[in-house]
Specification:
Blueprint (H helix, E strand, L loop, with lengths): L6 E7 L8 E7 L7 H26 L7 H26 L1 H17 L12 H26 L4 H8 L8 H13 L1 H34 L8 H20 L1 H28 L6 H4 L1 H38 L6 H9 L6 E4 L2 E5 L4 H18 L3 H6 L1
Antiparallel strand pairs: 1-2, 3-4
Length: 388
């Protein structure tokens, strides 16, 4: 059972596919008794970290305290990451039924198309990339949190120093703050675990959708053989439409939040890596350019998958239209084809669609990161120079 996401995996023989043997399926598990540790981490400890970092930023805005610029940037990073953790975990918990339905459908679809004729094992570059990132996400929290504790850059220490004005260098101050500072390790682990979960789930979901579209494109000629085969092809396409529609809310909000946070974090980490290389201790400094590069790698991996969903379905519709143009007795299928809209991942919040993952959005997103990074590096602020 995975209490963090309110699901458990049940392995048993599926009634529809007895020849496949054991098969995993996801079952919702929203019992509060099973989620006590998750609730404490997500809704108690993480909001406290958010509040402590945000309090330092607010006090600096109202000139109640004057921390260094390095501290302000770290507080901005902590505020962003904790907000992302609580928001995405809540979205997953609230939409666990839709996620269950989608994952189980993908599992059944994968087994339905399962063949054992090929015995050659090929190295998949994307699989290697995902595995390497999962390993990095497993190691990174221990390394980063240890360095933050050692150099006194964790939110608990900063809150005690700049808000409570405690003497943190005394024995009593260390005894009072050390337990709270160590507890912060739990949200850090959960944050990187969430990143690994999102990386694997989004990548595999996009690949399964693209695989379904690829199979329809491969057998696109069936749409002109007979009315029955044409209806069967269109029905398979509608299955993908319904599955994506079930996840429309969580996909649109999640994509918008992830892209916004990726933009903000990438700009912050780029700024720290370039501007503050002489003010951050060297072991801790290495985390910032490596994370900035990792964010760009994740964008370069996930964004094309979302864009390909739209591009492949556009090409599939065009191919179907060409095949049906040669058939004079398929007026009904032509009308259905006209009503079909290509699949598209939409980024939106609160009912407003911000952008669509279509061709050209990757170049636009990289240009936004570049523009905001250059603007931040060229900005002149006397107060910031004083903080440094």
């Amino acid at each position: 059972m995975d209490p963090s996401y309110g699901v458990q995996v049940d392995s048993k023989k599926h009634s529809g596919y007895p020849e496949l043997g054991l098969q995993s399926r996801v079952i919702p598990c929203k019992s509060p008794d099973s989620l006590i540790s998750w609730i404490i981490i997500i809704y108690v400890i993480t909001p406290l970290m958010f509040a402590s970092s945000f309090a330092i930023i607010l006090l600096n805005i109202y000139e109640k305290t004057v921390p260094p610029l390095t501290t302000l940037l770290l507080c901005s990073i902590f505020t962003t990451t904790t907000f992302l953790l609580v928001t995405v975990e809540s979205l997953i918990y609230l939409n666990v039924e839709q996620i269950k339905t989608t994952i189980n459908y993908f599992v059944q679809a994968a087994w339905r198309e399962h063949t054992t004729s090929s015995t050659i094992k090929r190295i998949d570059p994307l699989e290697l990339f995902v595995d390497m990132n999962v390993i990095l996400f497993s190691i990174y929290p221990y390394l980063s949190f240890t360095l933050l504790l050692y150099f006194h850059f964790d939110p608990g220490y900063l809150f005690a120093k700049y808000v409570l004005h405690l003497e943190t260098h005394t024995l009593l101050g260390n005894l009072l703050t050390l337990p709270i500072r160590i507890i912060q390790f739990l949200p850090v682990i959960q944050y990187f675990r969430l990143l690994a979960f999102l990386l694997c789930s989004l990548t595999l979901s996009a690949l399964l959708v693209l695989d379904g579209v690829r199979k329809l494109d491969l057998w696109a000629i069936l749409i002109r053989i007979s009315k029955h085969s044409a209806s069967k092809q269109v029905l398979k396409y509608f299955e993908l439409v319904i599955i994506l529609q079930l996840l429309n809310d969580i996909l649109s909000r999640g994509a918008a939040i992830l892209m916004g946070v990726a933009l903000l974090l990438c700009v912050l980490f780029n700024y720290v890596s370039i501007k503050l290389y002489s003010f951050i201790p060297m072991p801790l400094y290495l985390c910032f350019p490596s994370v900035a590069a990792l964010i760009l790698l994740l964008i370069n991996c996930l964004l094309p998958l979302g864009i390909n969903v739209n591009e492949k379905t556009v090409k599939l519709k065009e191919k179907w239209e060409r095949h049906l143009a040669r058939c004079r007795d398929r007026g009904y299928q032509r009308r259905i084809l006209i009503a079909i809209k290509p699949l598209c991942v939409i980024c939106g919040v609160a009912g407003f669609n911000v952008l669509k993952l279509v061709k050209g959005i990757r170049v636009w997103f990289y240009s936004q990161i570049f523009n905001y990074t250059i603007s931040a590096l060229l900005s002149k602020c006397k107060a910031c120079d004083k903080f440094i």
